[in-house]
Design a protein that fits this description.
With 203 residues, the chain is mainly beta. It is built from no helices and 21 strands. Strands 17, 18, 19, 20 and 21 form a five-stranded antiparallel beta sheet that branches. A four-stranded antiparallel beta sheet has the order 4-5-7-8, with no helix packed on it. The protein is globular. The two termini are 31 Å apart.
Length: 203
């Protein structure tokens, strides 16, 4: 894992020959967080200078992690857990779920947590309580196996979620109160990506 300065020079690098780091995220204080793939064991936090802040042993592969506005960390792991860590690396809660590995949980302004899922081959979404990880609602994108959903993104200004779905090139708008999904077909022949920029009047 490398940190690169704006001029392209290396600032520091972190090395672990026993595991492949997942995609890192950076907090407002410059800390870097990432999981481990193949074989995977830890979620790691590094300080802005590359020194280790802490490691959390999850004993399995971890996909991408996310951070909320309060510095809490979220991730899914291959042992079927959704985990929330406190900023100091201590566990807040772990929720067992068979369908969410490979998706990245994200939190809203109320600290509730949203995560995509592959529910027995069908795409769906969960809303979990930020306090204890209990399920608030669960929804499916469609009862059709041609669909698969990518990670949602949260638009704070409009207080709604957006996601993309493979299958008829759709962007999904998700009501966070009840999980109701609206579909907008953008390209019947293509596949929209998971990265969505929310602007004043357009996506």
């Amino acid at each position: 894992l490398y940190a690169i300065s704006p001029d392209g020079a290396e600032k520091w690098h972190w090395e672990n020959r026993l595991a492949v780091p997942s995609e890192p995220v950076v907090s407002s204080d410059g800390a870097v967080y990432f999981g481990q793939l193949d074989p995977g064991s830890y979620v790691t936090a590094l300080n802005y200078d590359g020194s280790q802040r802490w490691q959390y042993n999850i004993s399995d592969r971890v996909n991408n992690v996310s951070i909320d506005a309060r510095g809490n960390i979220y991730f899914t792991s291959e042992n079927r857990d959704i985990t929330k860590l406190k900023p100091n690396g201590q566990s807040k809660w772990r929720a067992l779920n068979n369908f969410t590995f490979g998706f990245t949980p994200i939190a809203d302004v109320d600290d509730d947590v949203y995560v995509g899922a592959n529910i027995s081959g069908l795409p769906g979404l969960y809303k979990l309580s930020g306090a204890d990880g209990s399920v608030i609602w669960q929804t499916r994108v469609d009862n059709n196996f041609v669909y698969s959903m990518f990670d949602p993104v949260y638009d704070k200004s409009q207080d709604r979620f957006y996601a993309t779905a493979k299958g008829f090139g759709q962007i999904l708008t998700i009501n966070r109160a009840d999980g109701k999904i609206s579909k907008n077909i953008v390209d019947g022949q293509g596949m929209p990506t998971t990265k969505i920029a929310v602007l004043a009047d357009s996506l």
